[in-house]
Amino acid sequence: MINSSEKIIEVKNLVKKFGSFVANDHLTFDVFKGEIFGFLGANGAGKTTAMKILCGLSKPTSGDVKVAGFDVYKQTEEIKKNIGYMSQRFSLYEDLTTVENIRFYAGIYGLTNKEIKERSEMLINKLGLDNVKNTLLKSLPLGWKQKLAFSVALIHNPKIIFLDEPTSGVDPITRRQFWEMIYEAANSGVTVFITTHYMDEAEYCNRVSIMVDGRIEALDKPGLLKKQFEAETMNEVFLKLARNIQEV
Amino acid sequence: MQAVVVNNIDKTYGKVKALTDISFAVEKGELFGIIGPDGAGKTSLFRILTTLLLPSKGSAIVEGFDVVKDYKQIRKIVGYMPGRFSLYQDLSVEENLEFFATIFGTTIEENYELVKDIYTQIEPFKTRPAGKLSGGMKQKLALCCAMIHKPVILFLDEPTTGVDAVSRKEFWEMLIRLKKSGITILVSTPYMDEASLCDRVALIQNGKMLAIDKPDNIAKTFDKKLFAVKSGNNYTLLNLLKDFAKTDSVYPFGEYLHFSPSGNDFQRTELLEFLSSKGCEDVEINTQEPTIEDCFMNLMNNNS
Q: What is the ipTM of this complex?
């Protein structure tokens, strides 16, 4: 459920430079508690750079950025405790079993042994993984791994979860089941910050921002963006915005 | 003669069965799509057809050559773009192209006309190391390198995975132009919306073919009614539709949910009444033409 009076991410004039290259050029936006916020942009538009800053992994060149109430310059450890992160490329350890992966992440986030035991059991039950709880992760289908990775990223009850192309390559049914998990998390008050190349998924977000060449060129509800750009789908909106930009 | 003929191919890795009884044929000059998610077996199939992997069972012919016996001939006439970016990151754009031309015993000049259309787009960056290119440009360079020896058939393994919507569109525009030169193209993708751009497609899941046909004909195999439904809160609507007694399937599709009722006697009014009784009033229901993705999910359900 969105609580639009409570800002969970506040970004003002965020600039990030690498030498003379401006990767993020005065980004300004807020994300509300419980919101599903789609962070879109072409390859190389600067999404990953901004995500790293929001996750406390990189510092801005200038600008004010607060995540879950903490400052990205000074309070990165507090930020890390309050966020979850999942990407398609790196999520879980292939050579650990299902249950070992859960225990490993829960341990890293400092859960007590009792909590670890309880949440492992709860997760295994909820995801229907009882038969494969002692199976090495590498032999599970991609869709199962992605669902497990999502749940593990939520194991320490973070306020915000960052999802970096979480559904790339998964089958269409699993992709939709994954989105149901996202909806469920958002309904329980978790803020979801997500990137994707599937433009139909942009429609599932409460609000969407579109980055072009380091700047946010559009930010609104999908319905309003479609009106603004006189487009039938988010795909058209995206193409209209990013199409004429020359790749450098 | 057909460009590719595949007969009853199996591929197993230890206990894992990657491909089961795959058979299909591709006509010369066809743009043939292999559509399926990660782990469906697309890469195994491409590696067998490009002679990089032996099938466990069955046989395949590419341009009249057997993929096991005649692998040397096949390697001279196919262009292969693997799924993972496999050019030399430390060589420049130009050096990569020259390298691939040289190992096939030709020169860039000799076949420049073939790649000109695509190469001119990346030529301004020809001195840049390939590792420093953006995603879309890497794909263009990889395609040039796969074509510089003038292959008669191209195998493109997920050329658009992880590439943004703009670069995806441009890449397909390039393929459609290429096809006009008469070259046979086999392309794999996890994006269902790319199916409609192919002459014919094979839908593949868990190593098995679900369907092989023209995109329009595949859409006709959808054997149920289909509606696009939406309300102010689609998540609530989705959960309500799952509880509705006559729901066969319901999936989010962009701003709508695609809903299929079970049985032939479904009336919209009964759905509206049900939703209204649950406090859901602002509902829009439209009939919906099935997309390839609808068909794929339907076939997945029928096969599980």
A: 0.85
